[in-house]
Protein backbone atom coordinates (compact mmCIF):
# COMPACT_ATOMS: atom_id res chain seq x y z
CA UNK A 1 0.00 0.00 0.00
CA UNK A 2 1.43 3.35 -1.03
CA UNK A 3 1.61 6.39 1.19
CA UNK A 4 -0.89 8.19 -1.05
CA UNK A 5 -3.76 6.15 0.43
CA UNK A 6 -6.31 8.22 2.34
CA UNK A 7 -6.74 7.82 6.09
CA UNK A 8 -9.29 9.20 8.56
CA UNK A 9 -8.62 10.36 12.11
CA UNK A 10 -11.65 10.20 14.38
CA UNK A 11 -12.26 11.10 18.01
CA UNK A 12 -14.34 8.34 19.52
CA UNK A 13 -15.22 6.43 22.69
CA UNK A 14 -15.37 2.88 23.99
CA UNK A 15 -18.49 2.19 21.92
CA UNK A 16 -15.95 1.60 19.12
CA UNK A 17 -14.10 -0.98 21.24
CA UNK A 18 -13.97 -3.57 18.45
CA UNK A 19 -12.11 -1.16 16.17
CA UNK A 20 -9.82 0.08 18.95
CA UNK A 21 -8.97 -3.44 20.07
CA UNK A 22 -8.32 -4.54 16.48
CA UNK A 23 -5.21 -2.33 16.74
CA UNK A 24 -4.32 -2.69 20.43
CA UNK A 25 -4.48 -6.49 20.66
CA UNK A 26 -2.10 -7.16 17.74
CA UNK A 27 0.35 -4.53 19.02
CA UNK A 28 0.29 -5.04 22.77
CA UNK A 29 -0.93 -8.60 23.32
CA UNK A 30 0.42 -10.39 20.24
CA UNK A 31 3.67 -8.45 19.57
CA UNK A 32 4.64 -7.28 23.05
CA UNK A 33 3.09 -10.17 25.05
CA UNK A 34 1.12 -7.91 27.41
CA UNK A 35 -1.54 -10.03 29.15
CA UNK A 36 -5.00 -9.22 27.78
CA UNK A 37 -6.30 -8.58 31.30
CA UNK A 38 -3.73 -5.78 31.66
CA UNK A 39 -4.42 -4.30 28.24
CA UNK A 40 -8.13 -3.66 28.74
CA UNK A 41 -9.07 -1.71 31.87
CA UNK A 42 -11.87 0.32 33.42
CA UNK A 43 -10.35 3.56 32.09
CA UNK A 44 -11.28 2.58 28.53
CA UNK A 45 -14.94 3.34 29.24
CA UNK A 46 -14.28 6.88 30.50
CA UNK A 47 -11.43 7.87 28.16
CA UNK A 48 -11.45 9.83 24.93
CA UNK A 49 -10.03 7.66 22.14
CA UNK A 50 -8.48 8.62 18.81
CA UNK A 51 -8.64 6.17 15.91
CA UNK A 52 -6.98 6.32 12.51
CA UNK A 53 -8.51 4.14 9.81
CA UNK A 54 -7.93 3.55 6.12
CA UNK A 55 -10.42 5.07 3.69
CA UNK A 56 -12.19 1.72 3.57
CA UNK A 57 -12.58 1.65 7.36
CA UNK A 58 -9.74 -0.61 8.48
CA UNK A 59 -8.35 0.61 11.84
CA UNK A 60 -4.56 1.09 11.85
CA UNK A 61 -3.66 3.29 14.86
CA UNK A 62 -5.11 4.46 18.16
CA UNK A 63 -4.44 6.23 21.45
CA UNK A 64 -6.46 7.44 24.45
CA UNK A 65 -6.68 10.30 26.92
CA UNK A 66 -7.91 9.45 30.40
CA UNK A 67 -9.97 12.05 32.34
CA UNK A 68 -7.00 12.63 34.68
CA UNK A 69 -4.70 13.73 31.84
CA UNK A 70 -2.85 10.46 31.23
CA UNK A 71 -2.22 9.57 27.60
CA UNK A 72 -1.88 5.91 26.79
CA UNK A 73 -2.61 2.89 24.66
CA UNK A 74 -0.74 4.48 21.77
CA UNK A 75 -0.55 1.76 19.14
CA UNK A 76 0.10 1.60 15.40
CA UNK A 77 -0.13 -1.63 13.43
CA UNK A 78 3.31 -2.75 12.26
CA UNK A 79 2.62 -2.24 8.53
CA UNK A 80 1.68 1.43 9.16
CA UNK A 81 4.49 2.60 11.44
CA UNK A 82 6.24 4.77 8.86
CA UNK A 83 3.20 6.91 8.05
CA UNK A 84 3.47 9.43 10.93
CA UNK A 85 0.31 8.16 12.63
CA UNK A 86 1.87 8.19 16.11
CA UNK A 87 2.56 11.91 15.74
CA UNK A 88 -0.93 12.56 14.40
CA UNK A 89 -2.48 10.76 17.37
CA UNK A 90 -0.36 12.49 20.02
CA UNK A 91 -1.05 15.91 18.46
CA UNK A 92 -4.80 15.23 18.44
CA UNK A 93 -4.75 13.97 22.05
CA UNK A 94 -2.83 17.09 23.14
CA UNK A 95 -5.38 19.27 21.34
CA UNK A 96 -8.21 17.47 23.14
CA UNK A 97 -6.44 17.86 26.50
CA UNK A 98 -6.03 21.57 25.85
CA UNK A 99 -9.72 21.89 24.89
CA UNK A 100 -10.67 20.15 28.15
CA UNK A 101 -8.69 22.74 30.09
CA UNK A 102 -5.96 20.38 31.25
CA UNK A 103 -2.76 22.16 32.28
CA UNK A 104 -0.48 19.14 31.96
CA UNK A 105 -0.57 15.63 30.57
CA UNK A 106 1.34 12.52 31.53
CA UNK A 107 2.19 9.21 29.95
CA UNK A 108 4.05 6.03 30.69
CA UNK A 109 6.48 5.58 27.81
CA UNK A 110 8.24 2.43 26.82
CA UNK A 111 11.89 3.44 27.05
CA UNK A 112 12.49 2.94 23.32
CA UNK A 113 9.73 5.55 22.67
CA UNK A 114 11.24 8.30 24.86
CA UNK A 115 12.82 10.10 21.85
CA UNK A 116 9.46 10.06 20.02
CA UNK A 117 7.61 11.67 22.93
CA UNK A 118 10.55 14.03 23.51
CA UNK A 119 10.05 15.38 19.97
CA UNK A 120 6.54 16.33 21.07
CA UNK A 121 7.78 18.22 24.12
CA UNK A 122 7.45 15.55 26.82
CA UNK A 123 10.08 15.38 29.56
CA UNK A 124 11.12 12.34 31.60
CA UNK A 125 10.14 12.38 35.28
CA UNK A 126 11.46 9.64 37.52
CA UNK A 127 13.24 6.35 37.07
CA UNK A 128 12.73 3.41 34.73
CA UNK A 129 10.26 0.79 35.97
CA UNK A 130 8.77 -2.46 34.72
CA UNK A 131 5.24 -2.52 33.34
CA UNK A 132 4.02 -5.86 31.91
CA UNK A 133 7.64 -6.95 31.48
CA UNK A 134 8.57 -3.86 29.44
CA UNK A 135 10.81 -1.01 30.74
CA UNK A 136 8.87 2.25 31.05
CA UNK A 137 9.42 5.77 32.31
CA UNK A 138 6.88 8.46 33.18
CA UNK A 139 6.89 11.58 31.03
CA UNK A 140 4.93 14.83 31.30
CA UNK A 141 4.14 17.90 29.25
CA UNK A 142 3.09 21.27 30.62
CA UNK A 143 0.27 22.65 28.46
CA UNK A 144 0.30 26.20 29.90
The proportion of strand residues reads 25-35%
Query: What is the count of β-strands?
Result: 8
Helical residue percent band = 25-40%
Question: What is the number of domains?
Answer: 1
Classification by helices and strands: alpha+beta
If helices are DSSP runs of H or I spanning 4 or more residues, what is the number of helices? 4
Structure description:
By secondary structure, the protein is an alpha+beta fold. It has one domain: 3-Layer(aba) Sandwich (Aminopeptidase), CATH 3.40.630. 28% of the residues lie in helices and 33% in strands. It has four helices and eight strands, in the order βααβββαβαβββ. The protein has helices at 17-31, 36-39, 85-99, 114-119, and strands spanning 7-12, 48-54, 59-65, 70-76, 104-110, 123-124, 129-131, 134-142. Strands 1, 2, 3, 4, 5, 6, 7 and 8 form an eight-stranded mixed β-sheet that branches. The longest helix is centred in the first third of the chain and has 15 residues, at 17-31.
Write the layout of secondary structure elements.
Elements lengths: L6 E6 L4 H15 L4 H4 L8 E7 L4 E7 L4 E7 L8 H15 L4 E7 L3 H6 L3 E2 L4 E3 L2 E9 L2
Parallel strand pairs: 4-5
Antiparallel strand pairs: 1-2, 2-3, 3-4, 5-8, 6-8, 7-8
Summarize the structure.
This protein is α+β, with helices and mostly antiparallel strands.
Summarize this structure as a short list of keywords or feature phrases.
about 140 residues; alpha+beta; Aminopeptidase; eight-stranded mixed β-sheet; 4 helices; 8 strands
Amino acid sequence: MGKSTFFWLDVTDWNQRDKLLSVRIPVFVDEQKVPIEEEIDTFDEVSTHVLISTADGVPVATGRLKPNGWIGRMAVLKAYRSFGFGSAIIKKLLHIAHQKGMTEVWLSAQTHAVPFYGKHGFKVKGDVYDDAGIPHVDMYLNLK
